[in-house]
Amino acid sequence: MSETWLQAAKGLQSSGYNYESLINFVNKALKEFPKDSALIKEKMIF
Questions:
Q1: Is the pTM of this model over 0.85?
Q2: Segment holding 32, helix H or strand E
């Protein structure tokens, strides 16, 4: 579920996860859910 990816990404961000690795994580989620507007929005915010 895309919500799980989104929650994980937010948790990684708040824990100080490396920016490039975080973007790679979100890109993997977008491969699974390419039209998910919440993931797209979150990627733009990061």
A1: no
A2: helix 19-32
